[in-house]
């Protein structure tokens, strides 16, 4: 009896955590899309340029 109750609780916890993770990922993704959509082009270029330098990627 206790084994089935433990398995049911674990399954419910996993589903809850998965739903929370998906919601957080969606909010972060939407935030990135809106931030880049409203950011000035020079700010995006500078951010990409700095990222290329941190990854040792030759860009110029």
Quaternary organisation of the protein chains = single chain
Cα-atom Rg, whole angstroms?
Answer: 21 Å
Q: What is the count of distinct domains?
A: 1
Please trace the helix and strand order, writing H or E for each element. HH
Q: Estimate the mean pLDDT confidence.
A: 82
Assign an overall shape: elongated
Taking the alpha carbons of the first and last residues, their distance comes to 67 Å
Strand content: under 5%
Structural class by SSE content: mainly alpha
Largest sheet: none
- Residue share in helices? over 70%
Would you report the number of β strands? Answer: 0
Which runs of at least 5 residues are low in confidence (pLDDT < 50)?
none
What's the helix count? Answer: 2
Describe what this molecule looks like in 3D.
This protein is mainly α and 60 residues long. The chain has one domain (2-54). The protein has two helices and no strands. The chain has helices at residues 2-38, 41-54. The longest helix is centred in the middle third of the chain and has 37 residues, at 2-38. The termini are far apart. The chain crosses the membrane at residues 21-41. Keywords: Membrane, Transmembrane, Transmembrane helix. It comes from Methylobacterium gnaphalii.
